[in-house]
Amino acid sequence: MVTKKYALLFGIAISLLGIILNTQKVTAAPILVPEWTEFCPPIYCDSNENVFSKDATYWYKRRMQFNDALHKCSAYKDNDLKNCYDELRAAEERKNKVWDVRQDEKYRTTEYNREYNIEKMRYDEINYMLDHRYYYRPRRYYYHYYDY
Q1: Into how many domains does the chain fold?
Q2: CA 26 to CA 117: how far, in whole Å?
Q3: Is there a contact between 49 and 57 (Cβ–Cβ < 8 Å)?
Q4: What is d(CA 62, CA 98) in angstroms, rounded to the nearest whole number?
Q5: For the chain, how are helix, strand and coil distributed in percent, rounded to 5?
Q6: Distance in angstroms (rounded) separating the CA atoms of residues 4 and 81
């Protein structure tokens, strides 16, 4: 009877000791490895070098640079590793901002060129109509050129 009592008390003491020790453990924050999909648009994530698409080639080269930088970071430990990953994330975000600005400029230029071309086509069409009035008259007004 005494042994059961001491065994029960011993078990309770061990469990309390385990709870106390577990609560006082300090765990470091996990170091999250940056992934390429965090920075790349979904359509270019698996792109290869492409002769016909400058954008796909750009993202392919960036992915190669990202993988090289990630490989260099793997040589570090603990806090240096975290700093390396943070620097890598910051660099990729800066590159993304530059990409966004270039895409906006490209879009604006394309829109401007499209509007310019439409206006030029309208202008050319009007000039053509004025230069060749004879062909644009309704059927009942078709005269010979010398009747003007």
Answers
A1: 1
A2: 66
A3: yes
A4: 13
A5: 75, 0, 25
A6: 52
Query: Is the residue at 113 inside a domain?
Result: yes
Structure confidence by residue, pLDDT tens digits, 9-47? 556 666 665 666 565 555 667 888 899 999 999 988 888
Tokens 């920075």: give the residue: 39
CA 21 to chain centre: 45
Q: Determine, yes or no, domain membership for 23.
A: no
Phi-psi region of 78 (alpha: psi -120 to 50; beta: other; left: phi over 0): left
Q: What is the dihedral of CA 117, 119, 125, 130, to 10 degrees?
A: -140
Is residue 20, in this structure, part of any structural domain at all? no
User: Which residue segment(s) compose the domain that 135 sits in?
Assistant: 33-147
User: What amino acid occupies position 105?
Assistant: E
- Contact status, residue 24 vs residue 16, Cβ threshold 8 Å: no
List pLDDT tens digits, range 44-100: 888 888 878 888 999 999 999 999 999 999 899 888 999 999 999 999 999 999 999
In a domain, residue 26? The reply is no
What would the DSSP string read from start to end of 30-63?
Answer: P-PPP-GGGTS-GGGTT----SS-HHHHHHHHHH
Residue 144 has pLDDT above 90, yes or no: no
